[in-house]
Amino acid sequence: MKRNSINIHHVTSFSSSPFWCVFFLVLLCKTSTNALVKQPPNETTPAIIVFGDSIVDAGNNDDIMTTLARCNYPPYGIDFDGGIPTGRFCNGKVATDFIAGKFGIKPSIPAYRNPNLKPEDLLTGVTFASGGAGYVPFTTQLSTYLFIYKPLLFLKGGIALSQQLKLFEEYVEKMKKMVGEERTKLIIKNSLFMVICGSNDITNTYFGLPSVQQQYDVASFTTLMADNARSFAQKLHEYGARRIQVFGAPPVGCVPSQRTLAGGPTRNCVVRFNDATKLYNVKLAANLGSLSRTLGDKTIIYVDIYDSLLDIILDPRQYGFKVVDKGCCGTGLIEVALLCNNFAADVCPNRDEYVFWDSFHPTEKTYRIMATKYFERYV
């Protein structure tokens, strides 16, 4: 076990027998998720409220000039309504937009910090998510990193999860002024809270920084992530949320940029990245199951997206895809955010043939499929 000397957060020791700990956690994960996958029957959903990273950011970083984790410029948004870049890290809608549409709430979930946000949008939900965010505070401080030959160029991040909660508190006060305290409490209680985060912690912070690997092993770092995710879910519960879904991390070792950087000459999926992700997901599911039992509230749910996306990657033709190892933007090998722009990168003519839009984020079609899979299992 490597000792923790970096000032990120205290990490509880992991067992000296990794095999049996992982085996136990897998069993606990299966028990917890099987018991908690469904939302309560006959519940209406007035709003969807989202926290997390670039997977569900809809433009909260647009005016933050200290980060490159923003995409409010073409070709981002090329397939969104009107072909306008919104700040979504995608060619069109993201998964939470499709989920909101399927619930019949609204066609898409706007960014809370959108200057054109209408008061009525607050009643049906917003996203506080920010590109570059992570469960480990240090992740958001790093946020975006560009591999420009050598060395790495590190830049300040977006909105940390702790700050996203501050924005949520501001949102609640606005709601109270609009509809009163009692209705605000009812909306929060019945709304669906979705937390989608963790990819940046694994790729950018742990595997991107040798100094972090020297002070944490995979077991202790994933424990840190899962413990912080549990704390975040508990905070939402304290705010009055009673329908909370915390999403696991996707198979980050298979996204195009990570294949390019660590997948070897043949750009294979990076096994050690995916193994770390799976270990984190198991711990996250176990933590959420434990939290639900502690609170006596069975509406805190772990949502798996690892298998959903991996199934698409491993069997793309089943879903109508042709390209899984490159993004649609530019060469598809490394372009993301600033490197994916109309001046330096061409866009593939048929986005629906690509699983990934840029080198890190899926296409609108992929998100649509994953939203459908989500509904089949969790709603």
Question: Could you list some keywords that capture this structure?
Answer:
four-stranded parallel β-sheet, two-stranded antiparallel sheet, 379 residues, Rossmann fold
Summarize this entry quickly.
This protein has 379 residues and is of the alpha/beta class. The relative contact order is 0.15.
Secondary structure layout plus pairing:
Layout: H1 18-36, E1 48-52, H2 95-102, H3 119-124, H4 137-142, E2 145-147, E3 152-154, H5 161-179, H6 181-190, E4 192-196, H7 199-206, H8 210-215, H9 218-238, E5 244-247, H10 256-262, H11 271-295, E6 300-303, H12 306-314, E7 323-327, E8 354-356, H13 364-378
Parallel strand pairs: 1-4, 4-5, 5-6, 7-8
Antiparallel strand pairs: 2-3
Helix pairs in contact: 1-11, 2-13, 5-6, 9-11
Helix content: 40-55%
Biggest sheet, strands in spatial order? 1-4-5-6
Query: How many alpha or pi helices?
Result: 13
The structure class reads alpha/beta
User: What CATH architecture label applies?
Assistant: 3-Layer(aba) Sandwich
The whole-number mean of residue pLDDT values reads 88
Radius of gyration: 20 Å
Series of H and E elements: HEHHHEEHHEHHHEHHEHEEH
For the termini, the CA-CA separation is 40 Å
Overall geometry comes to globular
Number of domains: 1
Number of strands: 8
CATH class: Alpha Beta
- Per CATH, the superfamily is SGNH hydrolase
Low-confidence stretches: 1-37, 144-155
The amount of beta strand, in percent, is: 5-15%
Described by strand count, sense and barrel closure, the largest sheet is: 4 strands, parallel
User: Remind me, CATH topology?
Assistant: Rossmann fold
